[in-house]
Specification:
Elements: E1 10-13, H1 18-29, E2 32-36, H2 44-49, H3 54-61, E3 68-71, H4 77-86, E4 95-98, E5 102-106, E6 112-113, E7 120-121, E8 126-127
Parallel strand pairs: 2-5
Antiparallel strand pairs: 1-3, 2-4, 5-6, 7-8
GO molecular function: thiamine-phosphate kinase activity
Protein name: PurM-like C-terminal domain-containing protein
Pfam families: AIRS_C (PF02769)
Length: about 130
Protein backbone atom coordinates (compact mmCIF):
# COMPACT_ATOMS: atom_id res chain seq x y z
CA UNK A 1 0.00 0.00 0.00
CA UNK A 2 2.76 2.49 0.85
CA UNK A 3 4.22 2.18 -2.66
CA UNK A 4 0.98 3.68 -3.99
CA UNK A 5 1.09 6.79 -1.79
CA UNK A 6 0.69 9.82 -4.02
CA UNK A 7 -0.21 7.65 -7.03
CA UNK A 8 -3.51 5.96 -6.17
CA UNK A 9 -6.74 7.90 -5.71
CA UNK A 10 -8.39 5.37 -3.39
CA UNK A 11 -7.76 1.87 -2.10
CA UNK A 12 -9.17 -0.88 0.06
CA UNK A 13 -8.21 -4.36 1.21
CA UNK A 14 -10.29 -7.17 -0.28
CA UNK A 15 -11.27 -8.85 2.97
CA UNK A 16 -14.96 -8.92 2.02
CA UNK A 17 -14.56 -9.67 -1.68
CA UNK A 18 -13.82 -7.54 -4.73
CA UNK A 19 -17.43 -6.61 -5.51
CA UNK A 20 -18.33 -5.63 -1.94
CA UNK A 21 -15.13 -3.77 -1.13
CA UNK A 22 -14.89 -1.93 -4.43
CA UNK A 23 -18.55 -1.06 -3.98
CA UNK A 24 -17.66 0.67 -0.68
CA UNK A 25 -14.98 2.78 -2.40
CA UNK A 26 -17.30 3.70 -5.26
CA UNK A 27 -20.17 4.65 -2.95
CA UNK A 28 -17.88 6.82 -0.80
CA UNK A 29 -16.57 8.54 -3.92
CA UNK A 30 -19.96 8.98 -5.61
CA UNK A 31 -18.87 7.18 -8.78
CA UNK A 32 -19.24 3.78 -10.42
CA UNK A 33 -17.06 1.31 -12.28
CA UNK A 34 -17.07 -1.36 -14.94
CA UNK A 35 -15.06 -4.49 -14.19
CA UNK A 36 -13.95 -6.67 -17.08
CA UNK A 37 -14.45 -10.25 -15.88
CA UNK A 38 -11.98 -11.62 -18.40
CA UNK A 39 -9.20 -9.58 -16.77
CA UNK A 40 -9.64 -10.96 -13.26
CA UNK A 41 -6.60 -12.98 -12.15
CA UNK A 42 -7.52 -16.67 -12.20
CA UNK A 43 -5.55 -19.46 -10.56
CA UNK A 44 -5.12 -22.72 -12.47
CA UNK A 45 -7.05 -24.54 -9.71
CA UNK A 46 -10.01 -22.18 -9.96
CA UNK A 47 -10.05 -22.42 -13.76
CA UNK A 48 -9.82 -26.22 -13.64
CA UNK A 49 -12.68 -26.65 -11.18
CA UNK A 50 -15.17 -23.89 -11.93
CA UNK A 51 -16.66 -22.67 -15.20
CA UNK A 52 -18.19 -19.25 -15.82
CA UNK A 53 -20.34 -17.81 -14.34
CA UNK A 54 -19.67 -19.66 -11.06
CA UNK A 55 -15.97 -18.84 -11.33
CA UNK A 56 -16.80 -15.12 -11.62
CA UNK A 57 -19.05 -15.32 -8.56
CA UNK A 58 -16.21 -16.84 -6.55
CA UNK A 59 -13.70 -14.29 -7.81
CA UNK A 60 -16.00 -11.39 -6.92
CA UNK A 61 -17.20 -12.60 -3.52
CA UNK A 62 -14.16 -14.37 -2.04
CA UNK A 63 -12.38 -12.45 0.68
CA UNK A 64 -9.50 -12.55 3.13
CA UNK A 65 -7.05 -12.83 0.24
CA UNK A 66 -4.60 -10.20 1.53
CA UNK A 67 -4.96 -8.27 -1.70
CA UNK A 68 -5.55 -4.59 -2.35
CA UNK A 69 -7.88 -2.94 -4.82
CA UNK A 70 -7.02 0.61 -5.78
CA UNK A 71 -8.04 3.26 -8.25
CA UNK A 72 -5.67 5.63 -10.00
CA UNK A 73 -5.67 8.02 -12.94
CA UNK A 74 -4.64 6.34 -16.20
CA UNK A 75 -1.88 8.95 -16.50
CA UNK A 76 -0.20 7.37 -13.45
CA UNK A 77 -0.10 3.82 -14.89
CA UNK A 78 3.61 3.84 -15.75
CA UNK A 79 4.62 5.26 -12.36
CA UNK A 80 2.50 2.66 -10.59
CA UNK A 81 3.97 -0.18 -12.66
CA UNK A 82 7.48 1.02 -11.81
CA UNK A 83 6.75 1.41 -8.09
CA UNK A 84 5.21 -2.04 -7.81
CA UNK A 85 7.84 -3.72 -9.99
CA UNK A 86 10.57 -2.35 -7.71
CA UNK A 87 8.93 -4.33 -4.89
CA UNK A 88 8.21 -7.37 -7.09
CA UNK A 89 4.47 -6.87 -6.58
CA UNK A 90 2.08 -7.80 -9.38
CA UNK A 91 -0.91 -5.64 -10.29
CA UNK A 92 -3.69 -6.20 -12.79
CA UNK A 93 -5.94 -3.58 -14.36
CA UNK A 94 -9.42 -5.10 -14.15
CA UNK A 95 -11.67 -2.19 -15.07
CA UNK A 96 -12.23 1.52 -15.00
CA UNK A 97 -14.01 4.07 -12.87
CA UNK A 98 -17.04 5.73 -14.48
CA UNK A 99 -19.16 8.73 -13.54
CA UNK A 100 -22.41 6.71 -13.38
CA UNK A 101 -22.84 5.25 -9.86
CA UNK A 102 -22.94 1.48 -9.44
CA UNK A 103 -20.78 -1.49 -10.28
CA UNK A 104 -21.17 -3.11 -13.68
CA UNK A 105 -19.56 -6.29 -15.02
CA UNK A 106 -18.45 -6.90 -18.59
CA UNK A 107 -18.02 -10.40 -20.00
CA UNK A 108 -15.16 -11.43 -22.29
CA UNK A 109 -17.56 -11.41 -25.27
CA UNK A 110 -18.55 -7.78 -24.64
CA UNK A 111 -21.82 -8.53 -22.86
CA UNK A 112 -23.00 -7.60 -19.39
CA UNK A 113 -23.43 -9.90 -16.39
CA UNK A 114 -25.05 -9.56 -12.96
CA UNK A 115 -23.71 -11.63 -10.04
CA UNK A 116 -25.97 -13.52 -7.65
CA UNK A 117 -23.96 -12.30 -4.61
CA UNK A 118 -21.82 -9.23 -4.03
CA UNK A 119 -19.58 -10.33 -1.15
CA UNK A 120 -19.75 -10.43 2.62
CA UNK A 121 -22.26 -8.07 4.20
CA UNK A 122 -21.26 -7.42 7.83
CA UNK A 123 -24.64 -6.17 9.01
CA UNK A 124 -26.84 -8.47 6.95
CA UNK A 125 -25.57 -11.72 8.46
CA UNK A 126 -23.37 -12.83 5.58
CA UNK A 127 -23.48 -12.84 1.80
CA UNK A 128 -25.98 -10.72 -0.09
Amino acid sequence: GLALRGLASAGIDLSDGLAADLGHVLAASGVGARLELGRLPTSRTLADHFAEPRRWELQLSGGDDYELCFTAPAARAFEIEQALAALDLPATVVGQVEAEPGLRFGTPDGGAWTPAAAGYQHFDGGHA
